[in-house]
Amino acid sequence: MTDVAAQLEALTARLQVLEDQAEIIRLIASYGPLVDAGCADEVGAIWTEDGVYDVDEMYMGSRADIVAMVNGEAHQGLIAKGSAHFLGPAAVNVDGDTAVAVCQSILMVHHKERFIPARAGIHHWELVRTADGWQTTRRTSRLLDGDLDTRALMAAGGKGERRG
């Protein structure tokens, strides 16, 4: 292989990683607006059919469970009053057709003509490249309460390590 061919191959590989990271960042960033708008099917499409969403107080073991959560009475009541799920920048590590990302979030809720913080969380995402683009196989979300397991989850995500 010539030097030019090798350089082109290396650049192509680097570009693919950057495109993958950008797609994953867009996917994660879409969660907040979609879930606050109540777009259940679009939120569900962030996950694979058998994708898991594990939150402190709730475990959803499929895309259908996630769609049901968004359509559920508790979530619909939250967004009817006004809410904003802010997910911070995601640190994304791509390894071929799989990836790990981590980000923090703040949930703001409307209360008496102002917004107040209701929850601060950490989110560890495990993703896979599918025919439809990147999708989540597992998202683990924990309250930022100083718990050692939560801190380990943050560290794993920051290092690009899977936890599933």
Automatic annotation (TrEMBL):
Residues 1-28 form a coiled coil. SUPFAM superfamilies: NTF2-like. Residues 17-140 form the SnoaL-like domain. The keyword Coiled coil applies. Pfam families: SnoaL_4 (PF13577). It comes from the Bacteria. Keywords: Coiled coil. Gene3D superfamilies: 3.10.450.50. The keyword Coiled coil applies. This is Nuclear transport factor 2 family protein. It comes from Nocardioides dubius. The lineage of its organism: Bacteria, Bacillati, Actinomycetota, Actinomycetes, Propionibacteriales.
